[in-house]
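Quick one, tokens below. Sequence please?
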């Protein structure tokens, strides 16, 4: 059997990639691995996104790794602090020396006879490099970093000012004293508006539909109390469990009694905004957590609105002229800068052309297996983060599972791990998620199939997943460990 260049090839050096590399080091240190990163730095999203105020929308005790305590003063952290944390973890665990920059993975083909993936990467000078690996781990996130969603705003070309998208923020954009319109109502807009309002003349958040928001402290006071009296490792773990439990409680409440949660949020909004509260701009026509709940650290957006530096307008764009934005209601908003925070585009497996024996893999015809692998596709896993919790909670679970699978292969002398599902055994497919967010609805057509029960589903219940990973071994009778001569033809 041909030996690969690497036991594991990790695509992407962001949170998910660093988590996988770290788990390999802890669980299967004998495995060789490489991280291929298309950019020239680690960090993924936290290196790419540079717009004003960029920050986490999850607390860093859950967005941080389970194995590396978050030590910064703020639990809701800005982009540079998160990037510094990732760089420190990668350095401390010897991951940096295994990262190969300027390598964009563009294709991967499974060679069944040799039990390895043949992976093609595009280098920055236009050359290609082909390497082989036993296990292919997609840690490239689920955003299309080249092509964000284009809302196709009518008449945008007529605007005489500057138009920017947060994903491609120019370093030299000067918005001091300018009139700014941020089009959008999601986490990016909620972050941008208070940050730009500090120096802009006026910032308008132009939203088609309001979003449910909740203020939360940047500093975790209870977590700091734990740190005073407990060893660091225990304080971090306890704060992490507290925050997971709190977020889970509110999400489950949204499904069990959405009106109760809506009333709680409405009360908090009224307390935060006072006379500036207007239900037209702060109460969506859907239940909480039908779309992602937006965190407002220390109520900064609400403070900007109360001060008059920022304003929310609920309307739609009918056109532009040289000096501003025309609205469907007939209103007109003058602007020097328009920021199109209109959403991102999802992709699966980083847009890599994945094939088996030269035949393209159609992921829409596969089922998710334990939220990380795909039915009848061997030695390949991805990270698709939780929609109702921190990305890293899933990334750590998936990395631990993949590292344990690789370790099992080393122990048993096997080289192929396939989640086997015969056509006659396929469960009924259900919707991959019950959220109405635009970016998720647009992605439904490219998603793999999802069953109602584990293991054939992309679950969005961290506790259920954690129990499953603890109680069900990697060799569960479904994930079949074999060698090439024993392997059956995949049922794709």
């Amino acid at each position: 059997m041909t030996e690969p260049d690497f036991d594991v090839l990790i695509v992407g050096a962001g949170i998910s990639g660093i988590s996988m590399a770290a788990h390999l080091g802890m669980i299967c240190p004998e495995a060789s691995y490489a991280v291929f990163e298309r950019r020239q730095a680690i960090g993924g999203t936290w290196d790419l996104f540079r717009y004003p105020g960029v920050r986490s929308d999850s607390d860093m005790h859950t967005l941080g790794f389970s194995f590396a305590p978050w030590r910064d003063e703020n639990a809701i952290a800005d982009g540079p602090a998160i990037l510094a944390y990732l760089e420190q973890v990668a350095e401390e665990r010897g991951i940096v020396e295994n990262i190969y920059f300027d390598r964009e993975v563009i294709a991967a083909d499974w060679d069944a006879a040799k039990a390895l993936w043949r992976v093609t990467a595009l280098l920055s000078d236009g050359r290609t490099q082909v390497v082989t690996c036993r296990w292919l781990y997609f840690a490239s996130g689920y955003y299309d970093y080249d092509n964000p969603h284009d809302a196709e705003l009518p008449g945008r070309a007529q605007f005489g000012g500057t138009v920017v998208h947060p994903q491609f923020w120019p370093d030299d954009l000067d918005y001091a004293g300018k009139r700014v319109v941020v089009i959008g109502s999601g986490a990016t807009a909620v972050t941008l508006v208070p940050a730009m309002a500090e120096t802009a003349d006026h910032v308008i958040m132009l939203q088609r539909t309001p979003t449910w928001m909740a203020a939360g402290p940047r500093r975790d006071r209870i977590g700091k109390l734990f740190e005073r009296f407990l060893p660091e490792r225990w304080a971090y773990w306890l704060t992490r469990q507290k925050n997971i439990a709190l977020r889970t409680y509110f999400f489950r409440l949204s499904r069990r009694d959405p009106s109760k949660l809506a009333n709680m949020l409405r009360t908090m909004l009224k307390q935060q905004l006072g006379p500036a509260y207007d239900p037209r701009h702060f109460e969506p026509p859907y239940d909480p957590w039908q779309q992602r709940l937006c965190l407002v650290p220390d109520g900064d957006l609400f403070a900007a609105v109360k001060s008059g530096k920022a304003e929310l307008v609920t309307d739609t764009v009918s056109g532009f002229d040289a000096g501003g934005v025309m609205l469907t209601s007939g209103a007109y908003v003058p602007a020097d800068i328009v920021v199109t925070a209109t959403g991102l585009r999802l992709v699966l497996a980083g847009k890599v052309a994945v094939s088996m024996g030269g035949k393209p893999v159609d992921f829409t015809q596969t089922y998710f297996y334990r939220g990380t692998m795909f039915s009848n596709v061997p030695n390949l896993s991805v990270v698709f983060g939780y929609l109702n919790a921190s990305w890293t909670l899933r990334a750590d679970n998936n990395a631990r599972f993949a590292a344990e699978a690789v370790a099992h292969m080393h122990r048993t002398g096997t080289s192929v791990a396939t989640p086997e599902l015969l056509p006659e055994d396929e469960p009924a497919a259900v919707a991959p998620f019950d959220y109405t967010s635009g970016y998720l609805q647009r992605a439904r057509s490219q998603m793999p199939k999802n069953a109602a029960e584990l293991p054939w589903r992309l679950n969005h219940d961290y506790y259920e997943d954690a129990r499953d990973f603890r109680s069900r071994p990697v060799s569960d009778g479904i994930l079949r460990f074999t060698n090439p001569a024993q392997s059956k033809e995949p049922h794709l």
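Residues 232-256 form the longest helix (25 residues). The first strand starts at residue 6 and ends at 11.
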